[in-house]
Amino acid sequence: MHKTVFKALLLAATLLLAAFALTACGSDEPLTPAQATETLNALLTKVRVTDIAPRLDITDAGISSPADELPDITNYPLSVTGRGTVDVEIVASTEKAGSGLDGWLNVIAERFNAEALTLEGSRVSVSIRPIASGLATEYIVSGKYIPAAFSPTNELWAEMLTSSGVRFEQVAPRIAGNTAGILMSKKAHTDFTEKYGDVTLNKILDAVLEGNLLLGYTNPYVSSTGLNILTAMLQAFDPSDPLSAAAVEKLQAFQKQVPPVAYTTAQMRESAKKGMLDAMIMEYQAYSIEPTLSDFVFTPFGVRHDNPVYAMGGITAAQKEVLALFTAYCLTAESQAEAVRHGFNARDDFAGEALNLQGAQLFAAQKVWKENKDGGQPVVAVFVADISGSMDGTPIRELKASLLNAAQYIGEGNYIGLISYADDVFVNLPIDEFTGKQKAYFNGAVKDLYAGGGTATYDAVLEGVRLLLTQKEQLPNAKLLLFVLSDGVQNRGYSLDQITPVVRGLGIPIHTIGYGDGADMTGLAALSEINEASSTKSDESNVVYNLRNIFNSQI
Predict the structure, then answer these.
(1) Range of the domain at 122
(2) Residue 10: inside a domain, yes or no?
(3) If exposure means fewest CB atoms within 10 Å of the residue's CB, which of 29, 502, 532, 534 is most exposed?
(4) The whole model's pTM is what?
(5) Same domain, 244 and 299
């Protein structure tokens, strides 16, 4: 038989085998890992992959300070705009200054402004800028943006400001009562109480350590509830010294029994609704207003989330008087009744735990978590970069800038590779341990990316998965992650439907980041949803910050 004919027949047989594997288990049954691997190898026979020799580059990423990483404050517009001669801008956490039932403070601010109060003949008002407490703390500590007043979710962020030398004064310890808690599905709660008795944080931690409870939580660098449970866990692991070696050892063991932290509460909630988590953390206010969580049981933990108010160092005397007036207005019976309607003030039976870590210890706790979040197991990650023609200009420039900056947040001992794609797929950097040399090769490979051609997104995903599986043969206990960075356009090669059974069968999380104002997130979000990973749209103003946070939480 002629060699060309034989090769054609062999390719046809391989693809038939892949098609058979995709349907053999029925449409409702996922492929086994072995079947998924076999199908992956068959599909890859039609993907053209080229190796690119990387070059060393030891220059920095061009980000000179933490402030440079933060988006411009205009990315977080005012939810209430005050028109008074003396106006006080309050940066407030999003569970009370967001939209809908998360907008209690906005309602109160609008009512306050409508009162048309005056101070020494001048009309007074307040403006509200909703920003998550962790991000707001970064703005203030970096000096990039300091408002007249700050109302975080809890007192932990104020402790971090104190340790950073930021001047402020407490105006009120509470304007709306709230508490963090652990939600368990009713079945998990029944099973738990039968085995452990009443629900306490210590018993929950024991259940997780023993493999009897799958708990999801959010990133303690940005989430108030995530930071709260981190400090509560460390205190439980060693009450006498929450940052001791013994506490860290327990934290590492704990991390081996939990999934990677959720990038957002919404992502974690979706995982729980699908039955992929037994329990998760959430504030009572968010729990009470979400009808899909009615089948979960709430148990409070940690410090209370009572929404304190602080006057920052740059506030004027007149603004301080206005802030005091507004705080008193928030505490009136009518305003507090409105707070109740928005889900606040419901769990005052829970006094809260004493603050067990203070000041710089909270930054140290975040660092301890970062270093131990993978339970002592290495992470193997491959970045899949879209370099098609539609990425030309701002998208490819921002992709490169964000990757170069975020690389400094990759933990030691992890393994990193980079591939790119247009019409074909390119291996720009084979996976290796992220030493100084590998980082220099990574820098060179990223800087050498340029845009042009079609978009074979899912071909590149398959090749990235292959690289991960090959590395796992050398590191069987490693956690595998894939990151796809794209504008969401796809017009070459395999489709999402064709690769979904493989991705699902192998269970590798695929985090997606959309670039460019016109990024189409539909396909990217669907790709991430297969194995419950994050999907984030970034634009020119926040892409560096967003990718940094994803790296901090995942790698």
Answers:
(1) 78-178+306-341
(2) no
(3) 29
(4) 0.84
(5) yes
